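Backbone shape codes
____________________
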Amino acid sequence: MSSVFQFQEWITSHSERTERALDRLLDSAQTTPHRLHEAMRYAAQGGGKRIRPLLVYAAGQLGDKTDAARAESLDAAAVAIECIHAYSLVHDDLPCMDDDDLRRGRPTVHKAYDEATALLVGDALQTRAFEILANASGDAQVRLKMIAALAAASGSRGMAGGQAIDLESVGKTLDLSGLQQMHAMKTGALLSCAVELGGIAAHLNAAQMACLENYSKSLGLAFQIVDDVLDATADSQTLGKTPGKDAAANKPTYVTLMGLDYAQKQAKELQELAIASLDSFGAQAQALKDLALLVVNRGK
């Protein structure tokens, strides 16, 4: 990395890299069954900030100089985690969950297609994520560690479990620790996994991975707090989805529990903690530091 790091250039190049990798590693819309594969691409390639793939790439450039094998591992990890994220959004938008009509500024999958197709899209994107990791070239132990990390972050002790707690909490009062636990699972687990996947690809040691874990835990919580703030304050054009859904559904959020001022202050403090966790990496971690700033300042 050069001594003068140009974050916007880095964002542009790695966002384009993500889109190319998605196009290459997803089945084409001409693959049978055509409608399902077309809808999978609609869900996964429909825009978005690509925060998780960007975190994979940013963590993956730590450590020794990258090579072709690491580059392919990072592409596979970036696409795999974005497939998991896209599947979670497709299912989250279904009438039996959050029942939303808008995602990333477009009709949700069950509106653009139908509910049964949306269900299958989520199922297929989830399994495709693990197929991509399993088939990536390179060291088998790296692939195995990535698969284990993504499975743990996605399942009942991670994202899916957090979503279950979220649904069970509608109309109930959660204290701050309960809210933090829910979001550490629902949102934080997958963000943390993105950073972990990059660290695995970079062959970082245990001490370095511990620094990344501290970074990603703070970042994941900050991300969700900012989501709650934006849900309460932003419009649908800014969000790309329907605002005010959590309040309308009587779901606990950081804003409803602690107030807007507290939530904004807490997000800023977590941002600072995340950045401080990376001090030992020096300039190599500048992309991760700038991504923390981007997460907390989005919507401003």
Remarks:
- The longest helix spans residues 206-233.
- The chain has a mean pLDDT of 91.
